[in-house]
Each structure stands twice: as structure tokens, then as C-alpha cells.
Specification:
290 residues; alpha/beta; four-stranded mixed β-sheet; 11 helices
């Protein structure tokens, strides 16, 4: 299969490219300049996603299309609209993030039906890339709340920056909220399976087991530079003032996602990211959370 991957020089896109090449696929990696590196065996397509002629010409060469680039909402939606029209019935996979589940709050473990409900009914999703891909019967792969691996990581990123700035790591309330973790290689493996099997109109969570937000803050406090005051509980009001409404509400609740749909449909299993306690979580910080 000839697959176009946008964001191919990035952390997530690069992992997807490597898995595709390893699986024997021909990969066209979309990059913004010749200086950006690609995995061995991939062919670079140099251009910008805001150039819709470039997007159309690149998609015409493809048997499948993966969007893993970071671009503005407007640019992403316009590019995906063009790509989906050119691809017709060929598989289109979009890599999304777990924050798009929104403040699921007191709900413990949720599956993809929650995401689909937001796609179909939430005003917040109107005009989003996720809704476009869904209506085009594409596949959405949702990354974990805490994604790590291959020398990078996100906790989300601002938690570590804030902890370094103030000398202590924060969590909201009692810190018993559960967040799913995942390894970028496992996400990439799921994307490849989704392309190969091409089930129409699906959402898949690329997640392993969860950990608590208090434990995450404690790991940040032990491992991030300059954090000497440990982890501290703060109220939702303080979190809102620091992080804003969106992230404070999410951090105050669970972001515990179920990965069983990908296992049942595709035979996927998170081989790298099975939660094994402190060693796995500390790896997130050792591998370099920005």
C-alpha cells in the first residue's frame, strides 16, 4: 500500500512512518522542507498543507492517507476536505487527542461511544477535523492522555513547565483521577492496523492502563529539573486561574479511556505501554518531557 503521512518528520508522524516502512508499505512523508528527516525508505513530499493543490496532487498518489500533522484548525479541515474527496473510498486515518473527549469528569472508564456522541451532537465539535473525518467515514485514532516514548513525552507538557517554574508539581483535589497512558509506538501500530483493515467510520483509543494524576504529579516532582517542593494538591478554583477552564476541568476529572475496541476489531494490543508502575512512568520523564 502507498500511504501518505502528514507531519511525517514529527514525533507521532515519524513513528507512524517507521511502522509503515517496517511493514512493507511505500510511504510518502509530507514535510515542509528538505532539511526535515524521514525514516529510511520513505519518500519526502515537500509542501505546505495550506497549498490545497499540493494536498490534492499528493493524495492522488495514495492508497491510504494518515493525518498526523500539527496545523491550524482551518488549514487542517481544508486539507482533509480535499484529501477525502480525492481518496474517495480509500482509507483516511486522523490522529486526534484524548482532550477531545472533553470534561468527562466523574465518569470512570469510557469507550469510543462517548467520543462519537460528542462528534455527532456537541457544538464544540462543529467544524472540527474530527467531525469532517467522521462524516467522510474515516478512522480516528485517539492518543492517550499521557503519551510518551522514543525520546519524547507529554504529561500534558505544560504541567512540567509549570512545575519547573514554581518549584512544585500540582494536581487537582485528591488526585485520584485516572488518566490513560500510552506509548507512541503502540499508537503507530494501531494506525497501521487501521489502514490495513480499513473498517469504515471508526474511533479507536490507543491507550494502555491508567494512572492517577497525583502519581503523575509526584513523578514530575521527582524527575523534572528544579522541582524541589514535591507535589501539591490545589483547588479547582486555583487550577482554573492557572490553567483556564478547559484544562482545569479535564485535570479535575478522569481521562480514563477504554482500548478494547481496537483489540476486538483489529487484534491490537499495547505491547510497549502496559502500565508497570514507577519504572514505566519515570521513563516518561527520563525520555524528555518538553
Amino acid at each position: 500500500m502507498r500511504v501518505v503521512v502528514t507531519g511525517a518528520a514529527g514525533w507521532i508522524g515519524g513513528a507512524i512512518v517507521e511502522h509503515l516502512v517496517r511493514g512493507g508499505h511505500e510511504v510518502i512523508g509530507v514535510v515542509r522542507s528538505q532539511q526535515q528527516c524521514l525514516a529510511s525508505g520513505a519518500v519526502a513530499a515537500v509542501g505546505d498543507l495550506s497549498d490545497l493543490g499540493f494536498v490534492a496532487a499528493t493524495a492522488e498518489r495514495a492508497d491510504g492517507f494518515v493525518h498526523a500533522a500539527s496545523a491550524s484548525r482551518e488549514t487542517t479541515v481544508a486539507a482533509l476536505e480535499v484529501a477525502s474527496r480525492v481518496l474517495e473510498d480509500k482509507p483516511l486515518v486522523y490522529v486526534s487527542g484524548s482532550s477531545l473527549y472533553g470534561p468527562i469528569g466523574a465518569k470512570a472508564k469510557v469507550d469510543e461511544r462517548e467520543f462519537v456522541a460528542r462528534l455527532e451532537t456537541s457544538e464544540a465539535m462543529a467544524g472540527s477535523a474530527e467531525r469532517l473525518v467522521w462524516t467522510k467515514r474515516g478512522i480516528i485514532v485517539v492518543g492517550a492522555g499521557v503519551l510518551y516514548g522514543c525520546g519524547r513525552g507529554a504529561t500534558p507538557e505544560f504541567l512540567t513547565r509549570d512545575a519547573t517554574r514554581r518549584g512544585e508539581a500540582w494536581y487537582v483535589g485528591d488526585g485520584d483521577q485516572r488518566w490513560s497512558i500510552g506509548h507512541v509506538d503502540d499508537l503507530a501500530a494501531l494506525v497501521v492496523l487501521a489502514l490495513e483493515r480499513a473498517p469504515p467510520q471508526r474511533v479507536y483509543n490507543a491507550v494502555a492502563e491508567p494512572m492517577s494524576t497525583k502519581y503523575l504529579a509526584e513523578v514530575v516532582a521527582r524527575n523534572a529539573a528544579g522541582v524541589d517542593k514535591g507535589a501539591k494538591s490545589v483547588s479547582l478554583e486555583i487550577a482554573r486561574a492557572e490553567w483556564g477552564e478547559f484544562w482545569s476541568e479535564i485535570l479535575a476529572g478522569h481521562l480514563w479511556l477504554d482500548g478494547d475496541a481496537a483489540k476486538a476489531d483489529l487484534g491490537w494490543y499495547p505491547a510497549q505501554a502496559a502500565f508497570g508502575g514507577a519504572d514505566v512512568v519515570a521513563t516518561i520523564l527520563r525520555e524528555g518531557v518538553d
